[in-house]
Amino acid sequence: MKLTRPMLAVAAALVLAGCGSGGAEDAVPDTATGSLEQLAAEAKCRPDMQTDADTIRQALCGKGKGKYVLATFSTDRGQREWINTAKDYGGYYLVGRKWVAVGHEDVLTTLRTTLGGDIEVGLNHATHSGDDATHSGH
Asked: What is the pLDDT of residues 97-133, one digit of tens each?
């Protein structure tokens, strides 16, 4: 998993070129749970599978500016370790139990109205935005 984590973080950073602007908050549903395929179906995503390992499964969803990475983890600890490492690269993370979506802030804000979860902000974005490195988006 140590090789997968940096590769996924770099891929996520490439998807996240630049900061998005915040929009109006929509109602947030209960956080979704399930397999990568179940989460993707809820988000109306046809997942393009990139990694299918025992500890992490990762797929690309969406196109163009609406593109995001959806990943599921076998353990809560593995997920938190991955997020903590990935946040060093900056970016925005929509976090649920054993899953994370990585993409532009506006894409994740919209996705949050379907999957629920909390938006966390990577370190590079937090430093210039003046916000805390973690926020629930409420």
From this structure: 999 999 999 999 999 999 999 999 998 754 444 444 4
Q: Which helix (H) or strand (E) holds 118?
A: strand 118-121
In this structure, what token pair is assigned to residue 60? 């690309």
CA pair distance 57, 6, nearest whole angstrom? 14
The DSSP 8-state label assigned to residue 98 in this structure reads T
Q: How far apart are CA 124 and CA 73, in angstroms?
A: 24
Both tokens of 46, joined, read 């046809």
Q: Which pLDDT tens digit goes with each residue over 89-103? A: 999 999 999 999 999
The answer to whether the CB of 14 falls within 8 A of the CB of 24 is no
Task: With a cut of 60, say whether residue 58 has pLDDT above it.
Answer: yes
Both structure tokens of 6: 């940096």
Structure tokens at 120: 């966390």
Exposed, middle or buried: residue 82 (CB in 10 Å: 0-12, 13-18, 19+)? Answer: buried
- Alpha helical stretches, state H, the chain: 4-15, 36-42, 76-86, 105-115, 123-129
Q: What is the pLDDT of residue 21?
A: 43
- As beta bridge partners, residue 21 has none
